[in-house]
Amino acid sequence: MKFQYYNDTKRDISIHPGTTLHGCECDTSPIQHGEVRTFILPPGTFPFVKMWDYGEENGLSILVSPIKE
User: Fold this and answer.
1) Which pLDDT score, from 0 to 100, does residue 69 have?
2) C-beta separation of 25 from 40 below 8 A
3) For residue 64, what are the β-bridge partners?
4) What is the C-alpha to C-alpha distance for residues 44 and 33, in angstroms, rounded to an integer?
5) What is the pTM of this model?
6) Secondary structure E strands in the chain
């Protein structure tokens, strides 16, 4: 399954390391404002998405984790 995330936050978003450790395939560079990032999930799963805001200086982080149906 493909999951696409559009960054409309006007801030860069880092990819949480758990995203790839949990089985998603993606470019792990920060997601720039206005960029669409595609996450490839294993077959038979759907995305669980969590975002953290560490403040203006430390930025945003996103976790995309595949969950079995």
Assistant:
1) 76
2) yes
3) 49
4) 30
5) 0.91
6) 2-6, 13-15, 36-40, 45-53, 60-68
Q: How many domains does the chain have?
A: 1
17, β-bridge pairs: none
- Give the model confidence (pLDDT) of 9-44 as tens digits: 999 999 999 999 999 999 999 999 999 999 999 999
Structure tokens at 27: 């470019």
In whole angstroms, give the CA distance from residue 4 to residue 14: 15
Domain that holds residue 43: 2-68
Task: Please answer whether residues 60 and 49 qualify as being in contact, where contact means their C-beta atoms are separated by less than 8 angstroms.
Answer: no
Q: Could you count the other beta carbons within 10 Å of the beta carbon of residue 26? A: 17
